[in-house]
Fold this sequence. Notes:
Elements: E1 2-6, H1 10-21, E2 25-30, H2 33-37, E3 46-49, H3 55-61, E4 68-71, H4 76-88, E5 94-99, H5 102-110, E6 114-117, H6 118-131, E7 139-141, E8 146-152, E9 171-178, E10 181-183, E11 196-202, H7 206-213
Parallel strand pairs: 1-2, 1-4, 2-3, 4-5, 5-6
Antiparallel strand pairs: 7-8, 8-11, 9-10, 9-11
Amino acid sequence: MKIIVMGCGRVGEQLARLLADEGNDVSVIDPSQEALDRLGKKFPGKRVRGIGFDRDVLVKAGIEDADAFTATSASDNANIIAARIARNIFHVPRVIARLYDPHRAEIYQRLGLSTISSTTWGAERIREVLTHSELDPVISFGSGDVALFSIETPPNLVGKMIKHLNIPGEITVIAISRKDHAFIPLTGAEFRAGDVVHLAVLASSMDRFKDFMGLS
């Protein structure tokens, strides 16, 4: 994929490296040459010095044929402006803006612009760790609305079937790791001792999930 990262702060720099390591064609935009230099000589992507919502700068970065654009600067206003230009003017298929103010994130999400609020995400992640210390999510989706867990089958579930744990719209068993392989189980499959169960859980159903796991 051809991806443009606008903003080469801590988040933008790390994101650019991760994307480049995966083999993507990455261009990084930042007004600071010092920030761009931090990527190092081995960084395979393109570096463009300039304002991330300037048309000429965006064109130089290759936005006209970009597959994705992400705005990760320290300014909410700059990120939103750049993201809207990428989406509405250059019609980039995938556009994401990083925002600090969660209230702004909600507004722009209603307008159809994908946003990630680091403030909301961080708060939700801390809440998860504090209130559900027995269960550490592998990853969270949205603003912590849904979490993915991997947990060894507790004794109270051994011998029971998948359908006894699945609750439509609340708890879903995605996969089971058993010995040296993983598989997607049928609802009639049974949990075995030593299984690692991978589940998606709705945040509002955490207490119910803990009851099933015997962790209340």
